[in-house]
Structures are given as structure tokens and as C-alpha cells.
Amino acid sequence: MPDSYTLVRALSACSQLRDLGAGDWIHKYVVDIGMGRNGFVNTSLVDMYAKCGSMEKARALFEEMPEKDIVTWGAIIQGYAANGLPKEALEIFQRMQKQSLRPDCYVIVGVLSACARLGALQLGESASSMMDRNEFLSNPVMGTALVDMYAKCGKMVVAWEVFTDMKEKDIIIFNAVISGLAMTGHVKAAFSCFGLVQKCGLKPDGNTFLGLLCGCTHAGLVDDGRCYFYAMSHLYCLDPTIEHYGSMVDLLARAGLLDEAHRTILSMPMKANAIVWGALLGGCRLHRDTQLAEHVLKQLIELEPWNSGNYVLLSNIYSANQKWDESENIRSLMNKKGIQKVRGYSWIEIDGVVHEFLVGDTAHPMSENIYAKLMELTKELRAAGYVPTTEFVLFDIEEEEKEHFLGCHSEKLALAFGLISTKSNVVIRIVKNLRVCGDCHTAFKLISKITCREIIVRDTNRFHHFMDGSCSCRDYW
DNA sequence: GGGCCTGTGT
What we know:
The chain is mainly alpha-helical and 477 residues long. Helices cover 63% and strands 6% of the residues. The structure holds one DNA strand of 10 nucleotides. Pfam families: DYW_deaminase (PF14432), E_motif (PF20431), Eplus_motif (PF20430), PPR (PF01535), PPR_2 (PF13041). Belongs to the PPR family. PCMP-H subfamily.
């Protein structure tokens, strides 16, 4: 009969292989042989389910466990954080604290990673204060989690301080700080940091170059991007992955070099995925090339037939070109397939609580006050000469909803809530799951001026730091 | 002799 040691090792193998079938089988077996109450085995099972991406099963087992120790809590928290469910990770963490359990460094790492995704600065800071600062500075994993949390929350200066104080720096923490600098617009600093990597005798890896390319993209530095892309394979013997190609396509397409971007896709040694084509589509949008966009969208519909956005955009383009029949065909194809749209949502953290908003959301307890604030803002915006823009019609999926949800995109709701819930000198931080919409971007710039507030919005790929009527992205995103 | 940790393109 296997003992608990054997079972733990076998489950660890399942975790590493992401083999849910084998893991399930062992779970049943564990119960059959009466080992279902062993803490080590149960924690291994929780971790196995988490690693296999089945958080429902991990959670069910976790809830059944009569005795959970700190490792069990760490496994479930980390599981939620790693599976893109940061809110759940924080909820479990708060439950853990109510039981007066002291977090260990594994728990803290999971919590910081969740806070980074949510942009929850206050929670991240209070979690990190539960540990001795030296723990962060001497443990590269913890240090990296902290640096990443600060960077993703827009506190790049603090992230940098932690980074410089680290006793030992490995390539992973360098990557975290390089991509942090890139995301927050400190591109030259990211480049210098790459110099430091070599000075420290470290070997850059693929992620180092992803960070650098990402920085080039945000700053529109096409030549630098081409250089790094060339250097990575020719000087550092790293094979570019599809992620690197995607980044290059993005860089070229944003800069208006649509042809070169398209040729890059066609020359890739691997089959292009939806992300790569999506980067080219973004360029078509930015530079208003509907002809190429039509071609790209056809590729995208083939690659991801369930994605509503592609159908909507293609049908918009057909309408704009008076191809009414084709436009209608696309719409009915979409209906026939029962395709649902992805909805945009935004988060804002107020006093350690993360609030979530959907487009046109009225579920929030403060909803009435939020909409009143929005009305007030809209009036002030109009007075300041703002006209809701229809310029993005062709390329904005959310456009057709705009009439019904005038001014009610999730980021605007989060902003209105932030404005009424904080003192006038507090910086407002919002996180969005999609790109910030063009109209909201214009409105936010003006709102930052009217209200004299700093507003930081992190969308899917970059920071928008609004201050005194302008944005750090210089309208290039 | 055992179980939980960081970065990563749209």
C-alpha cells in the first residue's frame, strides 16, 4: 500500500504534468484506501487541482478539509492568483486572517501577485508589512513579487527602491523591473537596466526581451525594437517565440508600418495566433486601414469563431463601405452561433476593498450617488467643450452600446465612485480588463483637469496617467 | 523522506 509520502510524490507529478485525469484517479484512490484525512495528502490534492486549472475542485476539497495549516492556505491562495482569479485569492486571505493565522512567505507571495493583477496597492502594502523587510530583500521570489506589485500599481519609484536594495538579483527580478519600467513609460531606464543585466554577468532570457520590446512599443521606438529583436537571436542565441513576433508586429503596426507588420506575420516560422493578428488589427484601427482590417478579421474569425468582437468589427466595416448584405450576413451568423460579447469591467480599491463595475452597472450599493456624480461630470465636461466622440465608430466594439449607456462604461463608473469616495488630494487608481475606450480616454483627460485629480488607469497593456488635462501615453496606445 | 512562491506579447 502506498503511504502518504508516496501519494504526495505521485500528486506532485500530476501537478507538474497538469494531468487532471491521473490526479482525479489518485483522489478517488486516496478516499478508497482511507487516506482522505491526511493533511499532507489533502494539501497536495488542492495544489494538484489548482495546477491543473480546476479551482472548483480545489476549492471543494479545501472547504471539506477539517484542519488546514498554513501550507494549505498558501496552496489555495496561490492557486487562485495563478489562475487569474485574484479577487478570490484575496477573499481567502482575508478569511485566513480572521482565524488569526500568521501568513508565511508563500502566502504573501500569492497575495502580492493577486494585488498586482488587481492594482490593489493598499492591500499589497498592508500584506507586505506583515513580513520583515529583510525577508523581501534576501529572498528573490518575495522581492520579485513585491517589485511586480509596486510596478503594476504604478508605484515604479518604490518598485525600483526595493529592486536596488535586493541583496542578490537574479534574471527574474531584473525582468520584473524591466517590464515594470517599460509599462510605466520609463523606456530609457529599461534599456539601462538591460545594460545592468550584462554588467552583473546574468544571461538575459526570452522574457527580458519581451519586456524591452514592450517598452519599445509603448514609446514607439521602432528602430530600438528592431535592434533588440535582431540581437536576441543573433547575439544571445535565443529563438524568438510567438510572443516576440507578436510584440514586433504590435510595435510595427502601431507605428503605422502596417505592411511590414503584415509581412512579419507571413514570415513567422510558426502559425500566427489570434494575438498576433489582433496586434495587426490594432494597427489598422489606429491608422484607419479598413481594407487590411477586413483581411485580418477574416483570419481572426477563423481562428477564434467564438469571439464576438471580430464579427462586430467586420460587420461595421462592411456597413461603412455600403456592403449592406455582407454586413447583415455577419450579424446573422453571429446570432445563429449564439455568440456573446465580452463585457468590459473595471476595478477600484477604496480603503482596502476592491469594487467591481460592469458597463451600465447599477448593482453597486452607491449606484445612485455614482450616477448623480456622472451627470454632474457630464455637464462640466460639456461646459469645457467636450463632445462625445464618434470617431472610433468603425473600430470600437462598444460603440453601439454607447447610445444606451451614454457615459456609463465601467471605467467611468469606477472613476465617479472614486471621486465621491476619496478626499480631493487622493490619486485615483483604476484597473480595466479591456483597452480603455477612446471616448473615456478623452473624457478622463478633461476630468483630471476639471477636478484637479491625478487618475491612473491600468488597462490590458499599459498605464494611463492622467494629470492636468493630458495623459502619459500621449494618446499613443 | 513529504505538501504551497516571483517575471512573460493583444
